[in-house]
Amino acid sequence: MAKIYSMTGFALLSHPYGNGISCEIRSLNSRFLETNVKLPLTVKDLEDSIKDVIQKNVNRGRVTCSISFNSSSQSLSNLKIDPNVVDLYKNLLNQIRNVAKIEDKIKLEHLLAFKDIIAFEEEVSIDENLEKSILGLVQNTLAKLNEMRNIEGDNLVKDLNNRLASLQKNIKAIEPLSKGNSKSEFDKLYKRLLSLIGEKKVDKNRLEMELAIISDRVDISEELIRLRSHIDLFKQNLKSGSPVGKKLNFLLQEMHREANTISSKSTLLEISHYTVAVKEDIERIREQIQNIE
Predict the structure, then answer these.
(1) What is the DSSP letter of 58?
(2) What is the tens place of the pLDDT at every residue in 102-116?
(3) Which residues, in sequence order, are CB contacts of 77 under 8 Å at separation 6+?
(4) Angle at Cα 8 formed by Cα 1 and Cα 154, nearest 5°?
(5) Which of 14, 79, 82, 220 has its CA 20 to 30 A from that of 204?
(6) Strand pairing of 33-38 and 61-69?
(7) Nearest residue to 49 via CA among 135, 167, 169
(8) How distant, in Å, are the alpha carbons of 62, 166, 169, 217, 263 from that of 178?
């Protein structure tokens, strides 16, 4: 059977290039594919290439990819201060003092509250080897992510199959009852009209014809057939593998529509009870497929 992927997952891998490179990828639910890449400034030009790799491995979801260079072994001498940033914050604090009419002088601790005043100076320059290492790391991390998403997808499929079995069981219980739904409606209307107007005051043949037309409107056999057809198609799509979430969601909308029609047409209390169970099954399935790619 083809693979089904959950849209949620997490993966973290490292590469030994230089002092080490780390890649962290997270994926969450989304109607479409949304990619967000976080990179050090020195390799910012690789953003589009990384997005291309993601798009080839993920079809739907909100995917965040973060690349970082390990700096634990770097010397403190690589720490730097940007004088322009310091001046910017100093001027900003002076403006605040003037507006708030504060006489206190600006102190060092006030400036140190801004984290980007001191930064780590990366001694990395992008070259062919670095680019190849990063893109390869992203590819491997995505492979690990998809392994996790597939495991979760398999669990979703098992749960969906159980819920589909429950749905089919409830539909099967409705089918024999549906055969008496039209007759029950006919008999009920017939007796009610006779009690109101009397048997001798009405054309019996005409009355039976009109009531037959009315009772035929409560026939739910076609809705049951379509509901079964939707379930069969749902199973087929589930076996075809991801991306299939949008198709499954559309089929569930059709199932819910048929269930609503059955509910509005049914006159037997037993059918109404089973229809409630059918709707509950459909809603539980709908909640699950929101996480399928």
Answers:
(1) -
(2) 888 888 888 778 776
(3) none
(4) 25
(5) 220
(6) parallel
(7) 135
(8) 45, 19, 15, 12, 11
pLDDT digits (tens, 9 = 90+) for 234-285: 999 988 888 899 999 999 999 999 999 988 887 778 888 999 999 999 999 9
For β-strands 79-81 and 33-38, DSSP reports them as: unpaired
> In 15-127, where does DSSP find H-type helix?
47-57, 83-100, 108-112
**pLDDT, tens digit (0-9, with 9 covering 90-100), for 209-239:** 665 666 566 778 889 999 999 999 999 998 8
3-state secondary structure 216-277: HCCCCHHHHHHHHHHHHHHHHHHHHCCCCHHHHHHHHHHHHHHHHHHHHHCCCHHHHHHHHH
pLDDT of residue 73: 43
HSE, CB side, 13 Å, CA atoms: give it for residue 268.
23
- Please report, for residues 58, 76, 114, the alpha-carbon distance to residue 109 in angstroms, rounded to integers and kept in the order given: 46, 20, 9
Mean pLDDT of 7-34: 92
CATH number for region 9-73+126-149: 3.30.230
For residue range 153-191, what is the model confidence (pLDDT) as tens digits?
999 999 999 999 999 999 999 888 877 666 666 666 666
Tell me the domain boundaries of the chain: 9-73+126-149, 76-120, 150-289
Q: What DSSP character marks residue 79?
A: E
Whether the full predicted model's pTM is greater than 0.70, yes or no, is no
Q: What φ, ψ does residue 257 adopt, rounded to 5°?
A: -65, -45
The two three-digit tokens of residue 66, written as one number: 């973060």
Amino acid at 7: M
Please tell me whether the peptide bond between 243 and the residue prior to it is cis, using omega within 30 degrees of 0. yes
How many whole angstroms separate alpha carbon 218 and alpha carbon 139? 57
